[in-house]
Amino acid sequence: MTKTCSELFQGMDCTIIGNGNEEVAGLAFRSDEVAPGDMFFCIVGTVVDGHSFAQDAIDRGATSLVAERKVYLADATDVTEVVVSDSRKAMAYASANYYDNPSRAFSLVGITGTNGKTTTTYLVEHIASVAGNRCGVIGTVGNKIAGVMEHAERTTPESPDLQKLFARMRDAGCTVVAMEVSSHALDLRRTWDTDFAVTAFTNLTQDHLDYHHTFDDYFEAKALLFSKDYPARRVISIDGSWGRELLRRCTAAGDEVITTGFDVSAQIHPVEVTYEAARTKAVLEVRGTRIAVEYPLVGRFNVENVMTAFGCALALGIPTQIIAEALATMPAVPGRLERVRPAVDAPVSVYVDYAHTPDALTKAIASIKELSGGRTIVVFGCGGNRDATKRPIMGAAALAADYAVVTSDNPRHEEPDAIIADIVAGMEDAERFTVEPDRRSAIAAAIALARPGDAILVAGKGHEDYQLVGDEVLSFDDRVVAAEELERAFGGACSD
């Protein structure tokens, strides 16, 4: 597949210096990944400036550069330069053109918010599949193309990788794709020039302030998905003030909006909800009509996710009866309040959840309490080289459980003990928590503390099967480790 420089930037304000008919064999934004004939994008990052790597890209065979300023290089006489005002937007624009605008070939549902994105994308995928669609999923757990799962490096890939992924989904015959859209991706224009059929907002709580710095900036990044740059039908949870502000903006812009939430003014809201150990039964009012639904997900926060997914499905034109039928057969979402199934009969229950924000942790603990007749014990930590301001808030949130074990998460390049010290600074009741930096030992300690009928929540990593310590990627899966520790503690007859 090749395109010329002029074809890639047709319709975009830019200056082409050199041969506009230069054939582009591929797109690259890392000079060490350049192949002969590639176009190299000089991306201005927060740490390094891609313009500094232009010569390296040329040395590796790049025949065209996209830059925000004219690059003067000794060996660039035969290199075509495309000068743009924003190299990130240009990269996204060119990527979409390179792959023939693949997002236009299917109905793309973009879901953003602090919590609930993963579960909601899986719900949308399942509902759309039951309705007869071939589906794709892009997000934190991984990417799925027509049922085939693949590893994902980022929640939302960089634009060349994203458009290539869209093209593969198009070529696989996907008709609906559900995608998590992160605030980083929106701010960094990874989704620029992508066509969405539906955009949805779940909630906004503290996270990523190491990057966005303020809540207002964090919200404005999320709100980009609901701006005129991304025209689509909107689904907005209005239980929080940020959702209500988003609704105000979209209404003023004349957008078609479906509102969801526990607020009775929402177009989709619950009339009654019954929480069971392995299922939830609810009666939802959907635009004035009451619909009974039952699904094998638990917790109040999953009611929120189900309502958002219901709204997305309606926006896609799927009938309410098919949506209700699909919810009844919804499979478990990896690492989202996922119950550990050990090979022994254990008198305590262990659940693993990705909750890594104060709000998500509070909601997960509340859900576990609804499922358990005994005490609730939480094992959790915080990631290194991420928003440190949320650590004491996470510590305070953990005390919603009866007891907490503070441990290491993904420390990355920080000292685990320093991260833990930040967490416990927010925990005032010293008798209700203990510290165990080793994560396996922490899980074992929680199991040892548990009495028959108690429930343990291991939070923070969810589906992840690794732990990031310095530059090492260590094998570690909370679900596997918890099962092993349950078997060690309670050995005996195998369960059904």
From TrEMBL:
UDP-N-acetyl-alpha-D-muramoyl-L-alanyl-D-glutamate binds at residues 31, 155-156, 182, 190. Its cofactor is Mg(2+). The modification N6-carboxylysine is found at residue 222. The keyword Cell wall biogenesis/degradation applies. It is found in: Cytoplasm. Its EC number is 6.3.2.13. Residues 24-104 form the Mur ligase N-terminal catalytic domain. It is an enzyme of class 6 (ligase). It catalyses: UDP-N-acetyl-alpha-D-muramoyl-L-alanyl-D-glutamate + meso-2,6-diaminopimelate + ATP = UDP-N-acetyl-alpha-D-muramoyl-L-alanyl-gamma-D-glutamyl-meso-2,6-diaminopimelate + ADP + phosphate + H(+). Carboxylation is probably crucial for Mg(2+) binding and, consequently, for the gamma-phosphate positioning of ATP. A motif (Meso-diaminopimelate recognition motif) lies at residues 409-412. Catalyzes the addition of meso-diaminopimelic acid to the nucleotide precursor UDP-N-acetylmuramoyl-L-alanyl-D-glutamate (UMAG) in the biosynthesis of bacterial cell-wall peptidoglycan. Belongs to the MurCDEF family. MurE subfamily. This is UDP-N-acetylmuramoyl-L-alanyl-D-glutamate--2,6-diaminopimelate ligase. It comes from Adlercreutzia hattorii. The lineage of its organism: Bacteria, Bacillati, Actinomycetota, Coriobacteriia, Eggerthellales.
